[in-house]
Amino acid sequence: MTDTLPIQASHSTDTLLQLSSIARRWTPLEELQDTAIAEVQLVRADSPTTFHCAVYDPCLCFVIQGSKTVLLGDKEIVYTGPSYMGSAVHLPVVGRIDHATPETPFLAVKVSVNPQEVAGLILELGDTAPLAGNDTICPEMDCGLKSAPMDARMQGALYRLLSLLDSPEDIKVLSPLARRELIYRALMGAMGPHMRRFAASDSQANRIARVIYALKERYTQPLKIRELAAAANMSESTLYHSFRQVTRMSPLQYQKKLRLHEARRLMLAEGLEAATASYRVGYESPSQFSREYSRMFGSPPRADVSYLRGARAAPEPA
């Protein structure tokens, strides 16, 4: 199943050029880069990439230029700048940059979003926020990822946030206001009903969001569907079905992906051996861990981590 987002025709060319200029100035490397604004990261790529695995936290991801494909289970989302995508919950995904050149690189901005911020703003907006609509979980309505065009107002809000990178003395006071405006624009636009569904405490989507949070916090422990269903006030069959609609995978698959991602981080960042990392994330069998790791990342743990370390240490081409 593929969602392809067309280029928005009503964008402001001047604003896009300004966004591109700021993003290129603050992305010296072809990778995800932190900025002086804690909740904001930038991405630049000068050429298309192969698919790579990642875990999205709740966030808004803005593509300024270029194109990217994101796979969430069996769902494929293709979004082309200027557009953005919202992740309502923590989701293991596979992503690939489709269009990028040194002259016109892929440029994107990731803005982390606290779900409590969304819920608080919805309360303030009251009846002025777009309604969530029918709360029935369905593939097109409540997948945890949704894309939307980035209209002129959203582009302006994103510009006001990124321009703070050029005036660091203003970041502490003004960046929370700029981030709040981005969330407001998303809530009042095409993304609004989707965000409202996941924020509403009595909604099915919100109950699944709570289940996902519990799994993320206890991913090293044995999976107990009955306890998760009871905590969410759902039957086991409803939990399983609804979880698959939101994440496009089963709870067991979701837990496995979280474990493997964390094990990869531990080996790469902390230098742990594969067996030690596998026990740390909840595996009882290093051989099973190695098989599942190879299936997910394409190489055995040691070879994969060695490759990643070599890629990061490689000098920039002259």
What does this structure look like?
The structure is a single chain. With 318 residues, this protein is α+β, with helices and mostly antiparallel strands. Helices cover 47% and strands 20% of the residues. The protein is built from 13 helices and eleven strands. The strands form two sheets. It has a six-stranded antiparallel beta sheet. Strands 1-7-6-9-4 form a five-stranded mixed beta sheet. A hairpin with a 2-residue loop joins strand 6 and strand 7. The longest helix is centred in the last third of the chain and has 20 residues. The termini are far apart. The C terminus is likely disordered.
Work out the helicity level.
40-55%
Biggest sheet strand order reads 2-3-10-5-8-11
Q: Structural class of the helix and strand makeup? A: alpha+beta
Described by strand count, sense and barrel closure, the largest sheet is: 6 strands, antiparallel
